Amino acid sequence: MGKYRAFLAISIAAAMAAGSIEAMASGAVVSAPDKSVLFWSVHKPSGRYALHRAMEDCNARFGGGCFVEKVYDYGCIAVARSNSHRRWGYAWRETPNAASEAAMERCDETGSHSCSVQTTTCE
Question: Is the C or the N end of the chain the one with fewer CB within 10 Å?
């Protein structure tokens, strides 16, 4: 009976440890050469792959010259844009609310008073 209990305890501990491991995901944000447009890629298996996908989208539209804004492996990214879509702000923070608030502040700092959060996503 002692061996069975020990086996059961080890099995339960292993199952709990396996259940607590979350899949890692990464994201990236890039901007157009004139900083007028943001492209982002989220929930990718690595920062390198997320950056590749965001750059690919930006370069397809602008033919190159895109800028890396942020590559991250954890946390939340939020993007806020003005109604005209000419002004934007993005922010990376540890919680979705903090990211959204910071993105709105950055967008408002551009002089736009019509910003709204377009997306918030967490890794």
Answer: N
The 3-state DSSP class for residue 7 equals helix
First to last CA, the chain: 44
Contact 30, 38 (CB under 8 A): yes
Return the number of other C-beta atoms located less than 10 Å from residue 71's C-beta. 18
Q: What three-state secondary structure class fits 40?
A: strand
Provide the edge-to-edge strand list for the sheet that holds 67-72.
38-44, 26-31, 67-72
DSSP labels, 8-21: HHHHHHHHHHHHHP
64 in Cβ contact with 70 (< 8 Å):
no
Q: Which residue has the tokens 């019509």?
A: 114
pLDDT digits (tens, 9 = 90+) for 5-40: 443 334 343 333 333 334 568 999 999 999 888 899
Please check whether residue 114 is in contact with residue 95, taking contact to mean a CB–CB distance below 8 angstroms: no
